[in-house]
Amino acid sequence: MPPTLHKRRAIIHGMGTTPQRGSIMLLALVFGAIFLMVFSGLSGYVLVENNFEMFTRAQSEAVAIAEAGLEYYRWHLAHFPTDLQNGTGQPGPYTITYSDPQSGATVGTYTLNITGNQSCGQTTSIDITSTGRPADNPTVSQTLIARYAQPTVAKYDFISNAGVWIGTGDAVHGPYHSNSGVRMDGTSNAPITSSLASWTCTSSFGCSPSQTEPGVFGSGSNQTLWQYPTSQVDFGAIAANFPSLKSIAQSSGIYLPRYSTGNSNSSAYHKGYHLIFNADGTVTIDRVTAQKTSNVGLLDSGTLGNDYALINNETAYETLKIPSACGLIFVEDNTWVSGVIPAQVTLVVANVSNTGVTPDAFLPGNITYASGNGSDGFTLIAQHDILITPDSPQNMTLDGVYVAQSGAFGRNYYGSTSNSSQYEPRGTLTTVGTIVSALQSATTWVNNSGQPIGGYASTIDYPDQQLAQNPPPFTPVLSSDYQFVNWRQQ
Q1: pLDDT value of position 474
Q2: Which of 149, 182, 215 is the C-terminal boundary of a domain?
Q3: pLDDT, tens digit, 9 for 90 and up, residues 293-337
Q4: What does the DSSP assignment read for 27-79?
Q5: Which end of the chain is more exposed for a tag (fewer CB within 10 A), N or C?
Q6: Are residues 475 and 154 in contact, defined by beta-carbon separation less than 8 angstroms?
């Protein structure tokens, strides 16, 4: 029997040994599989990260190459201002190899598309599209689009050649500049600048007696944004060339000759035209045959005098389609303007035919845009004053650029007239765009205590970035040098 027992023990012993060897192999396989999975996952992650890093680096290189393309064509236009075909005489696109200036090795290529924007037969701006591709990864590309133009006054919220007073009820949301001094008692979130280190604040700005103040002073907000002295805005340089504009309007735009007669002492001198812009692309033109005359506080002189801003009678004249290729209207007479601007329009109110005649522009109603996508724009350039009329809306909105080239922008004081309660006071004036005034501007009249008694009790000023990038033709420029006024990545 012992042999049998021994045999059984051997069998039993053998049965116990076999599962132990299988378990080790099974564990090895399991852990090996896990290791391979982890290793494969880690390798895949490293590979993905490496590819992503290479792609990101290639994208950065493509942007840098595209920027080089923009800079190249800016240089080209500086030397050849009218050449939009890269010296080839052929339409684009133009693919140019970009090399490292030190080693001479090819870095990549940029492809340029050049488009000139025209109005009234003149190039107003140039759009440059540059697509960069690195040499070591040409499947990756980045595209940049820039507009190349002369900077205009539309980059500012307000420009004055005289001192200004921003009251406690006023809010400024864009760059605000005076070649003189600024009293700032309102709120702002943009630079308030003066060209003077110091100036004399008089009773016109709430200082009685007069006192010397810094270029910008007052109780207004965000005083860290106040800057003085800064460079002047050259009003001589931004002055419009009226004879040239008249000639262009006669040939390509709309021209209205003088309707008034006589000199400034006669009632016939103060007639003119009433232009009402329509959303359908037309402008309705009435002739102003008579005005109401009132003795008021004059904005541009600070004294009492006659006001001719209120229309007493007008007759229908004509309705014209605004030319799509040249939205320039030149009027050689006093002009009242209101309505909905349906395109890119520049209205010039000036007289170059009659010596000593300097017409004014009047704003009796809101001026807004038919579209809010930047395709519409309005610039009004007046040889003398731009005046808001006594019967203007209680709360008024003005979109566009308003340039009083030798006069003032604002509103006369009607509190001294017999029916003053009908005209004073007004509520809020909102401007979206730019005001340029050679003389002291005022839309609010206050008493000795600084309380509003006439005009608009508060004003809210917003700059129009779309207008700054795409202004109507002949909007006054700040510099003859072209620069990128807009830059974006596609």
Answers
A1: 95
A2: 149
A3: 888 989 877 788 899 999 999 999 999 999 999 999 999 999 999
A4: HHHHHHHHHHHHHHHHHHHHHHHHHHHHHHHHHHHHHHHHHHHHHHHHHHHHH
A5: N
A6: yes
CA angle, 387 then 389 then 391, to 5°? 165
Give every CB contact of residue 360 below 8 A, 6+ residues apart in sequence: 334, 335, 349, 382, 384, 385, 386, 387, 407
pLDDT in tens, 97-118: 999 888 888 989 999 999 999 9
The residue segments making up the domain with residue 130 are 1-149
Query: Residue 211 is which amino acid?
Result: Q
For residue 266, give every residue at least 6 positions away whose Cβ sits within 8 Å of its Cβ, in sequence order, or none: none
Q: Spell out the alpha helix ranges (H) of 304-388.
A: none
- How much of the chain is helix, strand and coil, in % rounded to 5? 25, 40, 35
Q: What are phi and psi of 306, to 5 degrees?
A: -80, 140
> 351 with 358: CB under 8 angstroms?
yes
44 and 187 in one domain?
A: no
pTM assigned to the model: 0.85
Distance CA 381, CA 402 (A): 6
